[in-house]
Amino acid sequence: MTPASDHDALSLIEHFERTLGPIHSGWSVDPDGAEMPFQLVRFAGGSDAGSVAYATLGLSRQALSSPDPGRFIRQELLILAPDALKPDLVASLLLQVGSMVIGTRRALLRGNVIGPAGPLVPESDLTALYVTVPVYFPDEFATFEGDDGDVVIAWLVPITTGEADFISRHGWDAFEDNLVDQDPDLVDFGRSEMKLYT
What average pLDDT does the segment 54-71 reach? Predict the structure, then answer.
């Protein structure tokens, strides 16, 4: 698969900004000052007035393997967070996950769980990230149709250790049934664990 063209990169930015507003700030070097293999950006908007979106930009230059033999996936990662949350905390999460994806060269798929580890941010019960489609936005936002192929937008949702265990035992579809029924605020890094049922 050929790398994404410069035209594709510009069009991908436009795709993000049509839904999330203009890029507010960005990161291209890690905390040690080394250049990152992709950029991180923070947008002016999010899913509601109190949230903002963060995304990788350039991760989709990598052709990532998928469960289907011979098929590759290009993707960017998205996190929604409260506007008041320190941006460097969210950027650090995205950098860690994006670097893991590049290291494994495997795409993150709907239903995957990253973690659990320690609290994602200080004083939070959320310890893992759940991969799903960005359902807070119109359906067309989930895929960017570029000149060099589709780019999938994978939403990383903060979850608790108990929720991660539930997904491991009962599957992601049962977990998403709970999300639909209970409608927790998936942007809130301080939310409590859902009372899960099968």
Answer: 92
| Category of 33 on φ-ψ map: left (φ > 0), alpha (ψ -120 to 50) or beta | left
Does 194 map to a domain? no
Determine the 3-state secondary structure of 167 from DSSP. helix
192 in a structural domain:
no
- C-alpha span between 174 and 151 (Å, rounded): 27
Asked whether the whole model's pTM tops 0.85, one would answer yes
Q: How many domains does the chain have?
A: 1
Quote the CA–CA distance of 86 and 37 in Å, as a whole number: 23
pLDDT at 1 > cutoff 80? no
On the question of pLDDT at 165 being above 70, the answer is: yes
Give the separation between CA 90 and CA 106, rounded to whole angstroms.
Answer: 22
Q: Is residue 157 part of a domain?
A: yes
Task: Please choose, from the candidates 72, 71, 73, 74, the residue with its C-alpha nearest in 3D space to the C-alpha of residue 56.
Answer: 74
Who's near 44: CB < 8 A, 6+ residues apart?
Answer: 20, 21, 22, 23, 24, 52
* Domain residue limits at 106: 6-182
